[in-house]
Amino acid sequence: MIALRCSAMFDGERFVTGGVTVVVDGGVIAGVQAGHPDIGPNIEVVEYPDATVLPGLIDTHVHLVADGGRRALDLVEGYTDDEVDAVMSRSLAAQLAAGVTTVRDLGDRRFAAVDRRDRQRSGSATDVEPTILASGPPLTTPGGHCHYMGGEVGGPAQIEAAVAERIERRVDVVKVMASGGMATPGSDAMKPQFSLEELRLIVETSHAGGIPVTAHAHALPAVELAMQAGMDGLEHCSCLTPEGPVLPDELLATLSERGIPIGAALGPPSPEVYEDAPPNMKKVLAQLGLTPEQMIEMRRAMVGRMHAAGARFVGGSDAGIERHLAHGLMRSGLSFLVSAGASVPEALAAGTSLAARACGLADRKGFVRVGFDADLLVVDGEFGADVDPLGRVRRVMLGGRFVDA
Fold it and tell me: 26-53 b/e with 16+ CB inside 10 Å = b?
């Protein structure tokens, strides 16, 4: 048994200060006590003065097959299987070093992340790496966003066959590209890719197999169609129109009432890295006549309005697709939420307990509670007005074991 003693704790919902002791037995949290009481013999005590312990972070939106370099997604199609596996190993290592102990892959190439997940679950994985949830290749239209990953479908028969394959492979979630995207040439981020009937077919067929569905949706019409189709989650929810981001009051009310988790809610790239931005993103800004600074502020204002109305954001970084979205930078998205009006506990919950709930793991991950998985993160200092301590990782525990981050 191991006891971690820290000056503060974020338990997944709130802060506890004045000292805390977390006891770990095997891979499970066995005790959580205020202060630093005498816990008896035969327990290894590890002291972290002036440090905060919190649940391991959960990134709900990653792409493990992309290495976070320039135009990373464009390279995926040409990788050999060995190269894909090597990229995934580096991606997982970077996530773990940043305190991310669970990742949900929302777009791999030909089920590579699903196969990696299966190796984990069978006990045959050779590396220490975050727990993987995976969707397989995202469903997209012929030639649509990320078509090269292997998820192209055209018409009801192909949709049903593709969902059936995912059910057979026991994916953790079905991902659908409800709109075009920023990273695929020829894709239009301002237009839907599927009809309402097709999206409903995807949802109904997936639900019949016991699998939730999340929708990549940049265009406002795509967000509206996804909600009408009964999606379980949204990625981006950018609400783009030719006039800029537009969020109608009725849609905002629906998002808030349903409490649908919204992931990958990042702002556009900062002006400093804009030259590395995907061509489609530059095209969108040019169409709208906006500078990167203006787009960031519009996005921040919309996220702030959504948060104030009760919309539920979860930590999802879209990791791997570009340099400014490299693996291990989840804290940037949580910091953006704070800048948009979320409190620090709300932002941390988005990356822990709320993320666990969105991934169907809230019964064992995302909280520092007795009986939960001992996936823990220790960071230097205590949290103040931002999430900066997430960038000062002291120690990572995965399944009750300290890992070299």
Answer: eeebbebeeebeeeeeeeeeeebeebbb
Q: Which fold has domain 2-55+366-403?
A: Urease, subunit C; domain 1 (2.30.40)
In DSSP notation, 232-247 reads: SEEEEEEEEETTEE--
Distance, CA of 305 to CA of 311 (rounded, Å)? 9
Task: Evaluate whether 260 touches 214 at the Cβ level (below 8 Å).
Answer: no
Q: What pLDDT does residue 323 have?
A: 84
Instruction: Identify whether the C-beta of residue 164 lies closer than 8 Å to the C-beta of residue 170.
Output: no
**How confident is the chain (405 residues) per 10-residue block, as mean pLDDT?**
97 97 97 91 93 98 93 88 96 98 97 97 91 98 96 98 98 98 86 98 98 97 98 96 94 97 77 71 82 89 96 95 90 95 98 98 98 98 97 97 85
8 Å CB contact between 97 and 119 = no
In the structure encoding, which two tokens stand for residue 99, read together?
A: 């305190």
pLDDT at 268: 62
Query: How high is the pLDDT of residue 283?
Result: 80
Q: Which residues on adjacent β-strands are paired with residue 34?
A: 20
Q: How many CB atoms lie within 10 A of CB 142?
A: 11
Instruction: Give the up-direction half-sphere exposure of residue 298: CA atoms within 13 A in the CB hemisphere.
Output: 20
Token pair listed for 244: 């800029």
Report phi then psi at 87, rounded to 5: -60, -45
The residue ranges of every structural domain in the chain are 2-55+366-403, 57-358
Alpha-carbon distance 210 to 285, whole Å? 39
SS3 11: coil
List alpha helices for 8-122, DSSP H: 72-76, 81-97, 112-122
DSSP, res 353: H
Q: Which CATH architecture has domain 57-358?
A: Alpha-Beta Barrel (3.20)
Rg for the chain (alpha carbons), in Å? Answer: 21
Q: In whole angstroms, what is the distance from residue 159 CA to residue 199 CA?
A: 9
Q: Is residue 193 within 8 Å of residue 141, measured between CB atoms?
A: yes
E strands, 37-172, are 44-55, 57-62, 100-105, 131-134
